[in-house]
Amino acid sequence: MPFFRSLLLALVAGLLLAAPVVAQDEQTETFTQGAMLENIGNQIIMPLHTAFYQRVANLHNLAQAFTDDPTQEHLAALQQQWRTTVLLWEQVKIFRLGRAFVTHARIANETPPNVDFIESLIAEPRIIDADFIGTFGSNMIGLHTLEYLLFNSGAPENVLARYTEGDAGAQRRRYLLIVTDILEQDTSALLEMWSPDGQNYLRTFIVSDNPTSVRQSTSMLANEMIFSLEQVVQMSLHEPLGMGTGIVRPVAVPAPYSGFSMPMIQGFFEAFRATFNGNIEGQTGLGFDDYLNSLDVMYNGVPMADEINREIDDILVAIEAVQQPMEIVLNETPDKITTIYEEARDLVLLMKIDMMTNLGLTITFTDSDGD
User: In order of start, what are the domains of the chain with their CATH numbers?
Assistant: First the structure.
């Protein structure tokens, strides 16, 4: 997976350019929850959301170019931009906090696209626009619907043919552009919600609703990290492996049309590690690792923060061992996916039981880990 790894590193490098670097000696200061939230908010949340909006805006521009001139070159550029955009979304989605909940659901459309309904709209000669499409559920819009529109039919020439043949091709181009337009609007709203120049939820997150305590935001972030982790374990690993039925389900992989499932899973765990440690790659900053260390929390004789980082590293090593699209690996060597699943389940237990207990935090969401 050298190409996918390079893509991840390129995205991370771009985020580093957007974020100021925290001085090394800040790590030696006395830990406070407020300082941790300020670091995560300013160094991770805002740069990620800003970069994600830029990716979506570029995606929309490329969709417009393809709609105006549906060529193989424009299709290839649009498909590649979808890959880089969805990869960044895997990092952004950890921060489904506060008022961001509804917007995240529209962007992610985690339920499979309603392809039958989509195709029925494309087949009909009716006029469709953003207001009309927006009245339907999130499985008609969002990043995964775009994946279906851009990669269904296999080979690029087959995909292109569906956009260039008669009235249905013109209608398909309109639908594609509408979905990217809605996506840009939603992403803009999400950035505006967080931005200091907008609703400034960033400030609310840092100081919490109660100015005398940041416990609420700390708990909310920890819960969302664990919830997102469980969703990946359940939906991206447990379901495709058929753990409940004993029958593997390649159709249930996160990105069944593009073959991009493993890079997406890898991107999530890269972001999870960055958030837990309060930094991205070479940056230094306060995170949950520092919180645990400030309380001298141990796990089997080693600092719990080190054990959590070791578990994340083991997951990423197991992901790197997968060199083919996930749906192929599930059919040929499913044990490689099982290894990732088992390591990720161990991480869930470490975070959900041991970390939360030692930090005095409470799980506030319904269990979804497939037990």
Answer: 2-359 (1.20.1420.20)
